[in-house]
Amino acid sequence: MKTYPTVENAVGQTPLVRLQRLPGAIATARGNIVLGKLEGNNPAGSVKDRPALSMILGAEARGEIKPGDTLIEATSGNTGIALAMTAAMRGYKMILIMPDNLSVERRASMAAYGAKLILTPASQGGMEFARDLAGKMQAEGQGKVLDQFSNPDNPLAHFKTTGPELWDQTAGQITHFVSAMGTTGTIMGVGRYLKLKNPDIKIVGAQPAEGSQIAGIRKWPEAYLPAIYDPSLVDQFELIEQKDAEAMARRLAAEEGICAGVSAAGALVAALRVAHQAQNATIAFIVCDRGDRYLSTGLFDEQA
């Protein structure tokens, strides 16, 4: 009897595409190519499908969880959607804790997969408050926290899949990797893999400028710095203004036909800065998710 893949098998192997217009004359004259990895093509619509699957499969393999158990996670959105999908696929109950200022599309997507949502006041600590609440609920026996911020299965997913895909898709020609920094799982896993293949590859992290709030891009207080983060793997940091990320999201859709969220656009802002300085470079950035989960925020509304 013929066997067929499941949703699990559809995670990863996302396209890597060349930007045609946004790099502009300066980058082109310098011989630079800017490539976007379309992680919105994953089944739950974001790069977080990879670590969500990795964390659940890893916990199962270690005997920490079994189908029917309750999982808990604090999330700013994409990880929650990915975990809700994976929990549904693997037979778990899912409780997601998130600040109440995130888009309605994200909440609706999590609920569609059967997850229970707990909204916390964004004005009272945001993600830090959500992370503390998740720990408290686990201590009270309400479920198992996967903890994307300290779980090594998060960057491992990117070390085993995203990094090798980028290396193969560029035939080893990649010179710069650019990623938004949130949990830091993507930049840690990909960065570690690429540095093993070629130590000269530059790893560039996009972080929010002072006062900017960009969904999916964070600069954590010292007490909440993800345990998976290793600063030695990041060669360069680019501070991104919120207005620049939002404007770039609109340009990316209108000029390249890639509708993505603000964290992807923030990474592109950083990638274009690199493209205006480097020479004969192949620069790849992560297009973290799809822009359709930001429509209600007004991000893509016609600008005055």
From TrEMBL:
Which UniProt keyword terms apply here?
Amino-acid biosynthesis, Cysteine biosynthesis, Pyridoxal phosphate, Transferase
Molecular function terms, GO-annotated:
cysteine synthase activity
Positions bound to pyridoxal 5'-phosphate: N78, G182, T183, T184, G185, T186, S263
Which pathway does it operate in?
Amino-acid biosynthesis; L-cysteine biosynthesis; L-cysteine from L-serine: step 2/2
Q: Which reaction does it catalyse?
A: O-acetyl-L-serine + hydrogen sulfide = L-cysteine + acetate
PTM N6-(pyridoxal phosphate)lysine: list the residues: K48
All residue ranges annotated as the Tryptophan synthase beta chain-like PALP domain in the record: 8-289
**Top EC category:** transferase
Cofactor(s) needed: pyridoxal 5'-phosphate
Output the InterPro entries linked to this UniProt entry: Cys_synth (IPR005856), Cys_Synth/Cystath_Beta-Synth (IPR050214), CysM (IPR005858), P-phosphate_BS (IPR001216), TrpB-like_PALP (IPR001926), TrpB-like_PALP_sf (IPR036052)
Pfam families named in the record: PALP
Q: Coiled-coil ranges per the record?
A: none
Alphabetical GO biological process terms = cysteine biosynthetic process from serine
Q: What is its EC number?
A: 2.5.1.47
Domain of life of the source: Bacteria
What SUPFAM superfamilies does the record point to?
Tryptophan synthase beta subunit-like PLP-dependent enzymes
Stated family = Belongs to the cysteine synthase/cystathionine beta-synthase family.
PANTHER family per the UniProt record, alphabetical: CYSTATHIONINE BETA-SYNTHASE
Could you tell me what this protein is called? Cysteine synthase
What organism does the record attribute this protein to? Answer: Zwartia hollandica
| Gene of this entry | cysM
